[in-house]
Amino acid sequence: MRPGGGQRRPCSRAAAALAALLATGGLAAPAPSVAQGLALPDTLDITGAIRVALSESPVLRISGAQADRAGTDRLAAWGALLPTAGVSAGLNRSGFSRTTFVGEEGLSETLPGTLTSSSQSASQGLSLNWTLLDGGRRFSEISRSTASLRAAQRRYDNQQRDVVLTVRREFLEALRRQELLELTRTQITDRELELEIASRRYEIAAVERTDVLGAETNLLNARIALNAEENQLRAGLRQLVVSMGLPPEAGDGLVLAGDDGMPEGVPDIALIVRTAVTSDPELAALEAERSAAAASLWSARTRYLPRISVSLGWGRGENFGPEDSFWQFDPGDTSHSFGISASWSLFDGFQREQQNAQASAARRQAEEDLRRRRLEIERDVRRYGADIGELAQTLGLLDQAYAISRERLDMEQERYRLGTGSFVELQNAVDAVQRAETSLIQRRYDYLLAWSGLAEYIEGRPGIP
Q: For residue 445, how far is the Cα from the chain centroid?
């Protein structure tokens, strides 16, 4: 540590940004699309990172495409209630030539001359088909597709929330590495100053050569730690920008910004649990999937009912001689048709039984998935609440430990300058301060990450932009 320096406290760089996100629901409105490969600003805060992620995240775009596809499925389910219609029109010309024929004896004979002939025809038609009864399957499909669309929309909401939580968590992790890197750089400066002091004292024969060697070793170890911290920060920044939907190289040289501050207060766990079970988007998606599974089961059961269809047809056509014009658009012969058909499958090799069993199993699975999610919500909320309480107490104790180690270091530095203390005692005090600083930074970000995890249930369902 810097001899004679004042007390230095590790600063928090992201807590106020996190507290603001917790207060506002954590979601910023999406910014205009960022082109792939576009360089980020030199300094990025957590709000800007979330804004880019909501615009560029590939997993969020995939989820949106799935929701769009579910919308077309519902449209097709409603369209199945309507009749199908088709029109047709055709012009035809055919001809043939014959030079042989089969005689009465069954032998092929040759004509005295080539026989030729040709004909033309025109036809037009309109057809309508309408299924009157399909065992109620179409109505079941409407219910199923509507529930599936609702599930896809809630999955999109949940994916949007997951993207925000992932970016927030990785931002805090990278910010932790950035602060630890700054601490390591400060330690290198302190080690360089210690080496300078030890060298000067060695020149005047106030200390042994071992003090200089010890200071040089400490400086080398600090530089090794610096290289490791730089690599970890680089990896964390690349992971962050990939989660935002940008290429890994966009994180090179990026600086993360945050403000001082810490979330305060004790979370009301019981209230958060009650709120989460009504607003959690994944829970809403599972409820919609359960409804879809129930509709699919009803659709499978309707396969035991008959099918009744109605068909209507109108057409006209005419045959023409070879001398008439090929382009005939008003043929004179007309025809009309009307039909009703009914069918009822009495036995299909137990395929209906198989489909009913599968649909019933899918519904039971959906119900259990819903119950599992409710249990997970309560488990996670209580775990985060316990972590927040434990880390809050730990941070208070670490603050005291840091203050004690800092005071001890000041005393050892003064003793070393006066020649009453040894270099080993000074290094023990320096190591104690460094451990206290590192632990304080680590636990502070653990505390912020615990609040970030709890924010998943505090914020509820994010709106779809």
A: 24
d(CA 46, CA 169): 10
CB 416 within 8 A of CB 215: no
**What pTM was estimated for this model as a whole?**
0.71
CA distances from 299 to 168, 295, 350 (A): 43, 6, 16
pLDDT of residue 4: 38
Per-residue model confidence (pLDDT) at position 260: 55
The candidate with the shortest Cα–Cα distance to 129, out of 93, 94, 82, is 82
**What is the DSSP code string of 267-292?**
--HHHHHHHHHHH-HHHHHHHHHHHH
Distances (CA, A) of 199 to 4, 412, 417: 18, 18, 13
Q: What distance in Å separates the CA atoms of residue 310 and residue 332, rounded to the nearest whole number? A: 27
Burial 93-112 (b: 16+ CB within 10 A, else e): eeeeeeeeeeeeeeeeeeee
Cβ-based burial of 375 (10 A; exposed 0-12, middle 13-18, buried ≥19)? exposed
Quote the crossing angle between the two packed helices 269-279 and 423-458, to the nearest 10°. Answer: 50
**C-alpha radius of gyration, the chain, whole number:** 39
pLDDT for 363-393, tens place per residue? 898 889 889 988 988 898 999 989 998 999 9
DSSP for 227-263, please give it. HHHHHHHHHHHHHHHHHTTS-GGGGTT-EE---S---
d(CA 287, CA 281): 10
Separation CA 214–CA 424 (nearest Å): 9
SS3 helix, strand, coil % of the chain, rounded to 5?
60, 15, 20
Residue 311 neighbours by CB under 8 Å, 6+ apart? 127, 128, 129, 130, 337, 338, 339, 340, 341
Positions in the chain short of pLDDT 50: 1-37, 460-465
Question: Tell me, what's the pLDDT at 11?
Answer: 42
Q: Tell me the residue type at 146.
A: T
Count other Cβ atoms within 10 Å, centred on residue 397: 11
* Inter-CA distances, 169 with 266, 304, 453, Å: 21, 53, 8
Angle between helices 351-418 and 269-279 (to 10 degrees): 140
Tell me which amino acid residue 462 is: P
Strand partners, 122: 91, 318
Q: What is the pLDDT of residue 30?
A: 38
